[in-house]
Design a protein that fits this description.
homodimer, globular, alpha/beta, 225 residues, 8 helices
Chain lengths: 225, 225
């Protein structure tokens, strides 16, 4: 009998990558660009989507990931944005992230022919979502200025995983002891390649730049092909 | 050969519970009361500890849990509070929570004879930390008013796991569209037993009530024994 070494963690990630690739092929075939949007709880993912999606020159849909409930899906559906809800609570105590297979299980519910852009709103968490590709073309995260300047240094994997870092809630800056330049310096220290967009989803300031970034994803994909 | 059914998830939690109980016995023997403090990233755990611990009529120490770095430990050590740092990044991509064995591995570094109260500052995350007891006497969480009123409904396990829910950053209420009563109603809906304390770690408003809650833990333990 020969000895076999089983590496569980790598196998689990390998399976995820296989399914993520299958998702990506399906999205690509349908001509849908996909963004995996991540952040800590309460950073303003849904508020930003409410603000930006209706104004886009693209047909956008949303896949909502939550441990429980469909509060955010309801907010977006009220704006006539197509939304599919994925709840992670059947997992071990409620999964703290979306993985590729959860997204795959939602594919039959998504009318990919009716959209050009799919925003995947991940579970609010700065750790595990960064470890699981789900078939996206780009990864974006939101960091709100109420969370402190140190977050890139404490959760570097998340900041490194993303092509775009949105800095949200800048309308609150006059009321905080917060050094925006220090946050931007810290983002740059862990991920110098990342695009940074400073905005307020509440006031609308800077949201146009996020809309332009989303609109340019198909152009970037075409240029890369 | 009879058939055996292995339930991996429960086994993993059983092992954690066994080690958590061993930790609890060690803390109890040393006369140290232990609080597991949890929240989303950037809710103000460290700022609240900076504010409350030096004013307590107890000798308090802190076990700092972070994926990477020792920023918060440095802030507390500057106030002459004994601090031990646990980094979770050797785990699979950086563990998103502290478990009982991580806390156990820190015990040799903790001078339990020199403290009456140990605050365990967990990794910033509203999902997984709630699933892992670490040997604590009480569990407390912080929810900041910048995170929205819906968090108890989206992360019910965390709110249910805690004896105390601290509502932080109320100094920002004048600048937010936020319904404090609605948040308190939602906390009450998922955990009617929880004590709620409304405060601002930054202004100091309400922090005294949190200090009184911490001071009363040994009294409650004595009354229950």
């Amino acid at each position: 009998m020969h000895r076999t070494r089983i590496r569980i963690a790598e196998d689990a990630l390998d399976a995820n990558t296989t399914i993520a690739n299958a998702n990506w092929v399906d999205f690509e075939r349908a001509g849908v660009q996909v963004v995996n949007l991540m952040s800590a709880p309460g950073s303003g993912k849904t508020t930003l989507l409410e603000r930006v999606l209706p104004a886009l020159p693209l047909r956008a849909g949303v896949l909502e990931g939550d441990v429980q409930g469909a509060i955010d899906a309801g907010r977006l559906a009220a704006l006539h944005i197509p939304v599919v809800q994925v709840n992670t609570d059947p997992g071990f105590g409620g999964e703290c992230h979306l993985d590729a297979n959860m997204v795959r299980s939602a594919l039959p519910e998504l009318d990919l022919g009716a959209i050009d852009l799919l925003m995947i709103e991940n579970v609010g968490n700065l750790v595990c979502p960064a470890e699981f590709r789900v078939g996206e073309d780009a990864r974006a995260m939101i960091c709100s200025v109420t969370e402190g300047e140190d977050k890139p240094l404490k959760y570097p994997l998340m900041f490194r995983a993303c092509e775009l870092v949105v800095i949200n809630k800048v309308d609150l800056l006059p009321h905080l002891e917060f050094d925006l330049e220090r946050l931007q310096y810290n983002v740059d220290a862990v991920n110098p390649e990342a695009t940074q967009i400073v905005l307020s989803a509440r006031s609308g300031e800077g949201v146009e730049a996020f809309g332009e970034w989303l609109t340019a994803i198909p152009e970037r994909a075409a240029a890369a092909a």
